[in-house]
Each structure stands twice: as C-alpha cells, then as structure tokens.
Amino acid sequence: MDPMERIAQALERISPAPVPAPDFSVAEAFVWHCEPDRLESVHQVNRVEIGLLVGIDRSRDTLLTNTLQFANGKPANNVLLWGARGTGKSSLVKAAHAEVVKQAKDLKLIEIQREDLPSIGRLLSLMRGLELRFLLFCDDLSFDPEDSHYKSLKAVLDGGIEGRPDNVLFYATSNRRHLMPRDMIENERSTAISPSEAVEEKVSLSDRFGLWLGFHPCDQDQYLAMIRGYCDALGIKISDEDLRAEAIEWQQTRGSRSGRVAWQYVTDLAGRRDVKI
C-alpha cells in the first residue's frame, strides 16, 4: 500500500466522522457530548421561574433584554456571568431562555462542558447556516495554569477565519471575573520578561465577552424574600415569624447565605410539610 494512502487511512480513523444535524424540533434544550460527538435532547430543563429570582433585578433585566434581541435577529453580546457561588448565575441563564421561548421565540439552548470546549468547532458546524438561533451555555467556566482549552473558546467569542455564526451566542458562568486564578496572573506577571504581555492572551479572554454581569452574596432581607417567594409559588403555608426563625437558623448551620441555600431550606421545608416541588 502506498505510504500516503496509509497515512490518509490513519487520519480517517482518528478524525471523528461528521455528525449529522439532529432534529432540533424535538426539544428546546440540548447537551453536547463528544467521543462520540452527539447532541442529546433535554425535554425537562432543571430551572426555576424568572420571577422567583430575587435580588438580581438589574442582571435579570439586562440578560433578558440581550437574549430577546438575539432571538429577534438583532445585535446582541456574548455574556459572562461571574461572582459568588449559589447566587443564581446559571439559574438566570436557564430562566431567561425559558422566558424568551414563552414569547414564541424559537431559541435553542445548548449546554457544553468546559472539558469539551476543544470540540466546539465541530458543534458550530452543525448550527452554521441554519434558520434557528442557538444559545451556547457553559456553566462554571474557568481555566487552570496548564489549561489550553481557552484557545478553543475564542472560536465562539471572536471566531477564526469563518467567524462565529450569526445565529450563535455564548453565555458562560464563572466564579472568576478573569476566568483564571489570581495567583496565576500575578505569578506570570512577576516572572515574565514583558509582564504586561505575559498574561494578556488569557486575561483578555474575559474582555471578549460584550457583557459582564456581577453576582454578589445576598443580604438577609433578600435571602428571606427569596424563601417567601418560593413558599408562595409552591403553596407552602408558613407564618412570617416561623419562616424567619427557621430560615436564619438554616443559614447559620450552612455558614453562608445565597439563593442556593434559600432553595435548600425550601426543599427541606417542603419535605416536612409534604408539599411536592
């Protein structure tokens, strides 16, 4: 066999075969998997109503407006939602998508894991040229010192020669504003010949998001308002006095106060009151 033919056959074996375009009409949300490449439909998305997200009004309105603009074919920005854990970042993305779909907008939500970012070019090829609009979502995005996955993300934020498809927008959540540890930034600056350029490629990744939405720990009033909102929506009967006493005790046992802690308390309360959620 000719050497070039053997090389061609070897490349065919290690290169993933093109994935056929899925039937996007079967669901509003999908999860991207690779090895092998496939889009798995999600028929019941784990999310809460947007009206139950208390204390993040400005971020909620900004993200919803941006998402509606995109769904309507207007210019819109990629968004980085950053801040403390449990403050509603991923919940807001999923709730905003649901709110847009309610308005008869055919917007598909596709979740991709951080470790699958190197395959994102193949995912984009499935969506390029379609009439549908797609919202790519990566939860808990961050990069470690030896991580080069951020280079793949640039295909979405900036695009290569082909550019990012006009029908694709990217939303990411992260606990880090600059997507990399602060000590990593400082270490590279201190050891580089040209400190101002040493971390520019990685730090500037955050700058490629047109919108930054910051999320911060809630205060006690917001925490209690979240719980009251959940209880009212779920039909859990509890007096304000009992709710306040129990919720504060729950928060103290957890050592933190956030939307996630509020929901965990409500879950416990619903179980004790025999209320389905």
Label the structural class.
alpha/beta
Spans of at least 5 consecutive residues whose pLDDT stays below 50 are: none
Instruction: Give a short account of the largest sheet.
Output: 7 strands, mixed
How many domains make up the 3D coordinates?
Answer: 2
- Which strand-content bin applies to the residues? 5-15%
Describe the structure.
This protein is an alpha/beta fold and 277 residues long. The longest helix has 15 residues. A 7-stranded mixed beta sheet has the order 2-1-4-5-6-3-7. The chain is elongated, with a radius of gyration of 22 Å. The protein starts with a helix and ends in a 5-residue tail after the last helix.
Summed up:
The chain is α/β, with parallel strands linked by helices and about 280 residues long. The protein is about 45% helix and about 15% strand. Helix 2 (about 55-70) crosses helix 3, helix 9 packs across helix 10 and helix 9 packs across helix 11.
Produce the secondary structure layout.
Elements: H1 3-14, E1 29-33, E2 38-42, H2 57-71, E3 79-83, H3 89-102, E4 107-111, H4 120-127, E5 133-138, H5 150-157, E6 168-174, H6 182-191, H7 195-198, H8 200-207, E7 211-215, H9 220-234, H10 240-254, H11 259-272
Parallel strand pairs: 1-4, 3-6, 3-7, 4-5, 5-6
Antiparallel strand pairs: 1-2
Helix pairs in contact: 2-3, 9-10, 9-11
Summarize this structure as a short list of keywords or feature phrases:
277 residues; alpha/beta; Rossmann fold; 2 domains; seven-stranded mixed beta sheet; elongated
